[in-house]
Design brief:
The protein is mainly beta. Helix content is 13%, strand content 38%. Strands 16, 17, 18, 19, 20, 21 and 22 form a seven-stranded antiparallel sheet that branches. Strands 10, 11, 12, 13, 14 and 15 form a six-stranded mixed sheet that branches. A four-stranded antiparallel sheet has the order 4-7-8-9. Strand 17 and strand 18 form a beta hairpin. The two termini are 65 Å apart.
Length: 545
């Protein structure tokens, strides 16, 4: 609620600014999602505008967990740096609050009836557990084949991008059957460039599709090697819109001839449709009809000049992958890149950063869901994968009350699979309070990825006992005991004749505990478990099979 003379609707001002050719953005600035509910701390900057107190710091978004309405710090706020105050006091960390309790307490604080006490509304939840990995922004040195160039605000006109590399769909590369008249090894160089790009850019999948026959006779005044006749020829002869053609010796005379080997050596690019798809939270145009055209004397001039021909082919094929130029004056390493606007560099880390952003390497395991549900004294965990690549196993890890994550179980993966795989595990030893769960997916080579975190809360209201499995086919009999206080307990395992076979006495802290008796040396039959705690006695009949 905003106090003062304000209307029902008001504007919250950010620090973004765009005027003519200038644009301003500030790291950590406010960003809101339509339809969400937020708690903001504001100050009035003018009659019509309000600003947040500390950019995105201390902005809370409403979330629901375990049937509770919570206020969770937004991710941008959690990423702010925090400094020790001049008086030596550390900044209070951001917490997850119970919504109604926090709002009620804040009203008291604002009215002067109470001092701020976070413990009156704070919960044990971890704020980061409510946020999936934030969308990455394109690396600032990367450019694309359409405007505006990044970094650009979300909602800007799309950039082009090839779809479905992540779904193992190839982009076939064809090269003219006659080759380059000035370079007898031109076909081999294109083949080498296809292999080089695939090796350096892990998220693409170019295929060597062999030769094509688009020729001078297919050119037209309104068409050309990259015109209407070109696209119609691909559809008619190749039956697709997903293809990339390399054409040697400028078949339709669309490039000015070289003068003493100087001039435009080649160009590359792509068409794209008005239809779009989403990548990294941004709408991208769907690419189609890629092309590379080399000039008449390019082969004659550069075929045998070191690796110049190969480097130019890498460069132009990368343009056909929708990448633009990289400014040689920016970025790490002085801006050196294959995609510099002037020749000649082999593929560099800056190139890899751009292409790996645009076409990220397919994840070894595509996790479609991961859930944790409370069931009596246990937690039922389920997860599903849509596909798996080199997946050796999963480690299910648990953290109790924000402590260190520990391995609960190891579950074998499917190795390599393109079909749906379902997994489940019952955790019979959750702790008192909040239990956080995550998956660590481990590859055959030892590489691993973490899932998002799930949480389940166990409140211990009174003493509770369960015995399992019963009947018992295995060696160990398990006793789960939960107590709201520290408690001394005694346990006895007794046979049908009343003989005490085993006895244990333990001092247990408040919480949930799992205790065990081994029946390995006892025959099948009926036994009795007697459990003492305080003035209470619990007796359970146990059958060993």
């Amino acid at each position: 609620k905003v106090s003062g003379d304000v209307s029902e609707y008001f504007a919250v001002q950010s620090l973004r600014l765009k005027t003519k050719d200038l644009e301003r953005r500030v790291d950590g600035d406010v960003s809101f999602e339509e339809g969400e509910i937020y708690l903001l701390f504001l100050h009035q900057s003018s009659i019509d505008y309000w600003q947040t107190k500390m950019l995105s710091y201390a902005i809370f978004i409403e979330k629901e967990q375990d049937n509770q309405q919570l206020l969770v710090p937004v991710l941008e706020g959690l990423n702010h740096f925090q400094y020790v105050r001049p008086d030596g006091q550390e900044v209070e960390p951001l917490r997850v609050f119970e919504k109604n309790a926090l709002c009620s307490h804040l009203k008291e604080v604002v009215a002067g009836g109470s001092l701020w006490q976070h413990e009156l509304a704070a919960t044990d939840y971890d704020g980061t557990a409510f946020h999936s990995i934030e969308f990455r922004s394109p690396p600032t040195h990367c450019r694309y084949l359409s405007d505006p160039e990044p970094p650009a605000p979300r909602g800007s006109p799309p950039w082009p991008r090839w779809q479905d590399f992540e779904n193992n769909i190839v982009l076939p590369v064809y090269y003219h059957e006659d080759g380059d008249v000035g370079c007898s090894s031109a076909l081999g160089k294109v083949q080498g460039s296809i292999a080089n790009l695939n090796a350096n850019y892990g998220g693409i999948n170019l295929s060597d599709a062999g030769t094509h026959s688009f020729a001078t006779s297919d050119c037209a005044a309104s068409g050309g090697a990259v015109g209407t006749e070109f696209t119609n020829w691909i559809v008619t002869n190749l039956g697709t819109t997903r293809a990339l053609l390399v054409q040697f010796n400028d078949p339709c005379n669309e490039i000015g001839d070289l003068n003493n080997c100087s001039g435009v050596l080649a160009f590359g690019g792509t068409y794209w449709f008005s239809s779009t798809h989403t990548h990294d939270g941004i709408q991208w145009n769907n690419a189609a009809y890629g092309f590379v055209v080399t000039n008449n004397d390019f082969g004659t001039c550069y075929c045998n000049v070191g690796s110049s021909y190969d480097i130019v082919m890498d460069h132009e094929l990368t343009h056909a992958l929708c990448a633009g130029h990289i400014d040689p004056l920016v970025g790490n390493g002085g801006g050196t890149a294959n995609m510099n606007p002037s020749c000649c560099n082999t593929i560099q880390p800056l190139d890899v950063q751009c292409l790996d952003y645009t076409y990220p390497l397919a994840l070894p395991v595509e996790l479609t869901h991961f859930t944790a549900e409370k069931e009596s004294f246990s937690v039922a965990l389920q997860w599903q994968t849509a596909s798996e690549i080199n997946n050796d196993y999963f480690l299910l890890e648990r953290s109790v009350a924000g402590g260190t994550f520990e391995v609960v179980a190891k579950i074998a993966g499917a190795g390599n699979s393109q079909t749906e795989q379902n997994y489940q595990y019952i955790d019979r030893e959750p702790g008192a309070g909040l239990n956080y769960y995550r998956l660590r997916q481990v590859d055959f080579d030892g590489g691993f990825e973490y899932s998002e975190v799930r949480s389940v809360r166990f409140e211990v209201q009174g003493e509770e006992i369960s015995v399992f499995p019963n009947p018992l086919e295995d060696t160990w009999l398990n006793i789960r005991f939960s107590s709201p206080t520290d408690r001394e307990v005694a346990m006895q395992l007794i046979d049908v004749n009343g003989v005490v076979l085993q006895q244990q006495e333990k001092m247990l802290e408040k919480g949930i505990h799992r205790l065990r008796f081994s029946l390995e040396n006892y025959p099948a039959g009926v036994y009795w478990l007697r459990f003492y705690y305080g003035s209470h006695v619990y007796v359970k009949r146990v059958v060993r099979m």
